[in-house]
Specification:
Length: 439
Amino acid sequence: MKKIAVVGTGYVGLVTGTCFAETGNQVICVDIDTKKVERMRNGEVPIYEPHLDVLFERNIKANRLRFTTDLQEGIKDAEIIFLALPTPPGEDGSADLSYILGVSEQIGKLITDYKVIVDKSTVPVGTAEKVHATIAQNATCDFDVVSNPEFLREGFAVDDFMKPDRVVIGTQSDRAKKVMGELYQPFVRQGNPILFMDEKSAELTKYAANSFLATKITFMNEIANFCELVGADVDKVRIGIGSDDRIGKRFLFPGIGYGGSCFPKDVQALVKSGKEENFEFQILTAVMKVNEEQKTVLFPKMQNFFRGNLSGKKIAVWGLAFKPDTDDIREAPSLYMIKELLKAGASVTAYDPEAMPNVKQLLGESIQFATNEYEALHDADALLICTEWSVFRNPDFDQVGAVMRDKVIFDGRNLFDMETMNKHGFYYQSIGRGIKSDN
Ligand SMILES: NC(=O)c1ccc[n+]([C@@H]2O[C@H](COP(=O)([O-])OP(=O)(O)OC[C@H]3O[C@@H](n4cnc5c(N)ncnc54)[C@H](O)[C@@H]3O)[C@@H](O)[C@H]2O)c1
Ligand SMILES: O=c1ccn([C@@H]2O[C@H](COP(=O)(O)OP(=O)(O)O[C@H]3O[C@H](CO)[C@@H](O)[C@H](O)[C@H]3O)[C@@H](O)[C@H]2O)c(=O)[nH]1
């Protein structure tokens, strides 16, 4: 059993804290958001993340998981302090380290006995050194700073955390290595490795992983766009190349661009880190450009369909979250499409199983929200699909066609097969699969 403090209770911090509690540790989560802490103390999970609620409730009941707004109270008994704080893009695209360094400064003033301070946030190479220097300015006791990047995906966060493909631990301190190795032992029982390395390599491993995955998706999006020009079917090409073990089946799904709180900001931050070393990440620069264009690739198609005049058209939007099984709308492609549609004078009625409250906060009254997917379609001139929630995968097409003004679908996630669409008489455009049916 270890005593752990987790500072920051967002998608990463709350999952980290809860999963460490689940393996028998004593965890206290610290957040400056008083309302959030109040909600958690009342037993409420403040984010939507499948399966988190069961673990959360169980560990609170067992007194292994507690919450506070007071950093001093949070860290006083902890041997390990995780920093799961935001690292948003600064104005120039580099990672903003003010949250990390601000809390590090406070930690330096507060600690009185040995602690392992762990960077769980995604941070540029050299941050562990900066955190160390910041704490050292005030600390009067021994401490180590470790880089332990997190690879969980939203929507699968609990599973990814409990059964990680690997755990990366960057430290050159034997003492910290031992503490971290013991902590993670229960999570690598399946034989997946704990990879010990130096801090800088650990920090870069995280950016390299995200940038590689973003590149893989973007490559497939370009292939999809080319498929449309030459009449090939990207789904067939995807399966064709994905069957090669060297390429792999995963992360090859084309769509309206990658979004979320990680890929866009992390690719940008790595490119910026390169610039600081007079190094140009040529591939990643192209990835960012292609992805920007991909987010609105369906817009000109919609404009064409409506002969350049979207003004007054009613567009139903299915899916607002940047991906299914999350309420997160950070950098969601849906928001880019909605912005273009509103600019063109269209009206938008949207439905998303989890993300509507977040979008309401952002867009207010500028769009309408429906209580289910069919209600969103009432009198719609077209349906635009932005997120592949399971509930959208097998709709009653007769009902869909009956409530819409026109049977027109623009699908940014390739949910339906072309034959089904043809059979039901829909005009259907997706990504990389050509136009099947003329209206
Ligand atoms: N979201 C993901 O899927 C994911 C996965 C892997 C890594 N990461 C990285 O992990 C980090 C955290 O991401 P997130 O998505 O969990 O962020 P988030 O925005 O969801 O949560 C951050 C939390 O930190 C709190 N906070 C801010 N300042 C604080 C302070 N001074 N003291 C205490 N709490 C404070 C906020 O109130 C918030 O609850 C980022 O670096 C991100 O890149 C995220
Ligand atoms: O084949 C694919 C797979 C994903 N996406 C898009 O890519 C984005 C990111 O998806 P995903 O990676 O599943 O979600 P995240 O929760 O953002 O997770 C990524 O970012 C996290 C934060 O750094 C990392 O921890 C994870 O390993 C990494 O997968 C989303 O917009 C998806 O729609 C595609 O377009 N095609």
